[in-house]
Amino acid sequence: MIRASHIETARALGAAPAAPAGGAQLVWGRGCGYMAQLARDLVMPLVALSMMASLPAVARAQSAGKPIAVEVPSGQAVALNEVLLDESPGELWARFRFVAPAIERSADVSDAVAKSSEAMTYERSAADMDHLCESLVLDYLRRFDLAPARVVISLSDRPVAFGTKDAEATQFFEAYRPASDGCIWEAF
Q1: Are 59 and 51 in contact (CB under 8 A)?
Q2: Is the pTM of this model over 0.90?
Q3: 172 with 86, same domain?
């Protein structure tokens, strides 16, 4: 016995389509549209997950808001805190902000300590900033197809919100012009 329902039954001879207009129902059957819906529900999240896995660690850490440790020639602890893109000077600038807790102002360091290998002064940190530009920044710019006019690398002994003043914080800055063969230091 066939019950009267809102689902049409295909007839052997006649004009009824094999599936109702708009596809078969998803609730009681696996007809037209079921596999397409399944693909949308399962495949798209898997594609998004695989794309996320292919992003570099820097981008994943930044999107998660976590600093990521970076190796530098001096061996000091340095972590990428954030990357900012800024067009306020009329051209694109990329700002790479790092936290380096060991950095100290030269005026705060005695002559004996300054000459030792323990003090991370501006002079010692400048080589680290050059290295960061050559090794990390250029790769980041290529991966995300960015072409900034300038790159600013900053080291701070503690996280400081961009654009705010912190008299207690020690911060070092360097500006570079990215080129195909490396970073060109710019007087800041």
Answers
A1: no
A2: no
A3: yes
